[in-house]
Write a structure and sequence with these properties.
Number of strands: 7
Structural class: alpha+beta
Keywords: Membrane, Transmembrane, Transmembrane helix
Shape: elongated
Strand order of the largest sheet: 5-6-7
Number of domains: 2
Helix content: 40-55%
Radius of gyration: 23 Å
Strand content: 5-15%
Length: 142
């Protein structure tokens, strides 16, 4: 997304108010990112090549291992990819802030005239919540 354009060396002020897209709940919502489609294609291609061609050239005493070890790793990879694509990464406070009174998701608006970056001083200006790393909080508490 182009956020601003430059004309004659000065910043064009017509793009100062930026409306963000409706946030996605997980990675299964369309439109899929091109790299997501590419990654599934690569996994499919490599698995077909391995099980369709490469294992047949193994010596007969290695074929069981040629199917079993990559098969276990393939299943772990597919399950972890499905799990991470399904999980909603947003914090509860961010999700609650973006919902309006009807429960539908509202669009955040970012004003470039007031703020140079979306997150400044650990505060998100679209969601209007403080951004804090949980790792830092755990280290401060202990």
């Amino acid at each position: 997304m182009v956020l601003m354009s430059v004309q004659g060396g000065s910043r064009d002020r017509s793009h100062d108010l930026i409306s963000t897209a409706v946030p996605r709940v997980n990675g299964w919502e369309c439109p899929w990112h091109p790299l997501q489609v590419l990654s599934w294609g690569v996994v499919l291609f490599l698995s077909l090549m391995h099980y369709g061609f490469i294992v047949f050239y193994f010596p007969s005493y290695w074929r069981i291992m040629g199917y079993t070890v990559p098969g276990i790793l393939f299943i772990i990879h597919i399950l972890s990819t499905i799990l991470t694509t399904t999980i909603d990464p947003a914090e509860a406070s961010v999700r609650d802030k973006l919902r309006d009174s009807n429960g539908s998701v509202a669009r955040g608006v970012f004003d470039r005239r007031r703020h140079e970056h979306v997150i400044e001083d650990l505060h998100c200006h679209i969601c209007d919540v403080n951004v804090v790393c949980e790792f830092i909080i755990r280290k401060l508490k202990s």
